[in-house]
Model the fold of this input.
Amino acid sequence: MNAELIFSLTIFALAVFLGFELIARVPTLLHTPLMSGTNAIHGIVLVGAMLVAGTADSTLEQVLAFVAIVFGTVNVVGGFLVTDRMLDMFRRRPDRPDRAE
Done:
């Protein structure tokens, strides 16, 4: 393994650890606004994965870029679905007519 790969894996491991620690400490009230911001960030990650896929030289790089694109797409779509579902909870429902008793 060359030094560049070890460096990249170290950065990836630190990013995973930092991301987990940050997300675990988010209060419930901030979840929906942060989901919207996170969706935007993941959109940028998705564009980056596409750029990497376009410049990939080896088959391994192409496969990893494809996996990153798939995971990024699932993450963005799922994030928007969850955000939309959470916002539906705060919408007013039409008043129901009183039941005859």
